[in-house]
Write a structure and sequence with these properties.
two-stranded antiparallel ribbon; elongated; 3 domains; 14 helices
C-alpha cells in the first residue's frame, strides 16, 4: 500500500514537472504545420527531446492547426521630396530680378496593392520636369515716366544738327591724304618746333597773329549787328598794338579784362541764316563746309598778309608759320584723339560741326 502511494506521488511530480516546464518552452518555440498535418516546421534552436515530443503529439492529433503571426512593420511611403535631388527642387536664379525659375517634378508612385507589404519597396517611374522662366517686364523695374529722364551717355551736349556728308568717299580719301601729310611731315616739324621754342615765345607769336586778324573780326562783328563785340575788337586792337608791343602781349585781357573775340565771315553767314551745307574736307586745310569755303574766300581779302605781304611766298610762309605755331599747343591732344576713337574721320567731322555751330550761336 505504501509502495503504491509513493508511485502515485512520483507520477504526480513528473506530471507537474512536465506541465510547468513545457509552458515557458512552448512560448519560445515557433513552428507551423499545414492543415493536412503532412509536414511540421520547427525552429532549429529547439532541443532534440522537445522536437521528438512535439512530433509524436502531432501525429496522435487528428487535425492540428498552428498559426504563428509576426508583426511586420511596414515603413510609411517616403515623401516624393526624398527622391529628388538638387536639380528637381524649386530654385531661384540670383541674377534674375523679380523673376524666378521653377522646376516641377512629377512622380508617379504606385498604390499599396503594387507594393509588397513585407519589403515596403516603392517603384519609381521616370520623372517629368518642366522649366518655366519668368522675365520681369520693363515696367516692373522702372516706371514708364522715368525713361524720359534718362540721358544717352554718348550723346553730345550740343544740340547741333548732324552735318550732311554726301561726298563721304571723296572726304575720306582727302582725310587720309591729310593724315598722311600730318603724320609724315607736319607732326615731326611741330614737335621739333615745340621742343625748341619756349612756350611763352610761342604764345607771343600766337598773340601777334591774333591781333593782326582784327580787321576780319571787326567787319564780321559789325555785319552781325553785335555792337559789344565790335567795341571790344576796337579796344583790344588799340591797347595790344600799343601797350602790348604790336600784340605780343595780351594787355587788354590781363590789365583791362577785355576778352578776345573769335568772329569770321562764316559765322556772319550763319547768323544771317545761311545753312552750313555739306561737309567738305579741303586739301591741307582739313575740315570745312560749303558755307565755310565762301567765308574763307571772303576773309582772304581782310587778311593783313593779302595786303601787306611782299609776295605770295611770304604770305604763304606766314600762314604756314601760324599753322605750325597753333598746332604746337594741341599736338598731344591730336595723338590722344587718334588712340581713343574708333573712326577718327567721323569724330573729327562731328566735332567740327559742333564747334562751328557753337561759334555761330555765341
Amino acid at each position: 500500500m505504501g509502495i503504491t502511494t509513493s508511485r502515485r506521488h512520483l507520477v504526480g511530480l513528473i506530471y507537474l514537472f512536465l506541465c510547468f516546464g513545457f509552458v515557458p518552452i512552448a512560448d519560445a518555440v515557433g513552428f507551423s504545420e499545414d492543415s493536412r498535418g503532412s509536414k511540421t516546421n520547427v525552429n532549429p534552436i529547439i532541443g532534440n527531446d522537445l522536437h521528438v515530443f512535439m512530433s509524436q503529439d502531432s501525429r496522435d492529433a487528428s487535425d492540428v492547426t498552428i498559426t504563428v503571426a509576426k508583426a511586420i512593420e511596414v515603413p510609411s511611403t517616403p515623401s516624393p521630396q526624398s527622391y529628388l535631388d538638387w536639380r528637381d527642387l524649386d530654385w531661384k536664379d540670383p541674377f534674375v530680378e523679380h523673376g524666378q525659375v521653377k522646376v516641377h517634378a512629377s512622380l508617379n508612385t504606385p498604390t499599396n496593392s503594387d507594393v509588397p507589404a513585407a519589403t515596403g519597396q516603392v517603384a519609381k517611374s521616370d520623372s517629368t520636369m518642366k522649366l518655366e522662366l519668368r522675365m520681369p517686364s520693363p515696367t516692373s523695374i522702372m516706371p514708364s515716366d522715368s525713361f524720359k529722364d534718362l540721358k544717352d551717355p554718348f550723346r553730345s551736349e550740343s544740340n547741333a544738327p548732324d552735318m550732311p556728308d554726301p561726298f563721304e568717299d571723296y572726304n575720306r580719301f582727302m582725310f587720309d591724304f591729310n593724315e598722311g601729310f600730318y603724320d609724315n611731315l607736319m607732326e615731326p616739324v611741330v614737335r621739333e618746333y615745340r621742343d625748341a621754342v619756349n612756350e611763352d615765345i610761342r604764345m607771343g607769336i600766337s598773340n601777334i597773329f591774333d591781333n593782326a586778324m582784327a580787321p576780319l573780326k571787326l567787319v564780321s562783328s559789325f555785319l552781325q549787328g553785335d555792337l559789344d563785340k565790335t567795341g571790344r575788337v576796337i579796344g583790344r586792337t588799340i591797347i595790344n598794338t600799343t601797350l602790348g608791343l604790336g600784340g605780343m602781349f595780351d594787355v587788354a585781357d590781363k590789365a583791362f579784362g577785355i576778352k578776345d573775340v573769335n568772329e569770321d565771315l562764316d559765322q556772319t553767314l550763319g547768323v544771317w541764316g545761311v545753312p552750313t551745307g555739306p561737309y567738305v574736307v579741303l586739301p591741307l586745310f582739313g575740315p570745312s563746309s560749303m558755307r565755310n569755303i565762301f567765308g574763307r574766300a571772303g576773309g582772304i581779302f581782310l587778311s593783313p598778309t593779302y595786303h601787306f605781304a611782299p609776295g605770295v611766298e611770304v604770305g604763304g610762309g606766314l600762314t604756314v608759320t601760324d599753322q605750325i605755331n597753333d598746332t604746337s599747343f594741341i599736338v598731344d591732344d591730336i595723338e590722344q584723339l587718334e588712340e581713343s576713337t574708333i573712326d577718327k574721320y567721323e569724330s573729327v567731322r562731328d566735332f567740327y560741326g559742333q564747334y562751328r555751330d557753337g561759334l555761330v550761336k555765341d
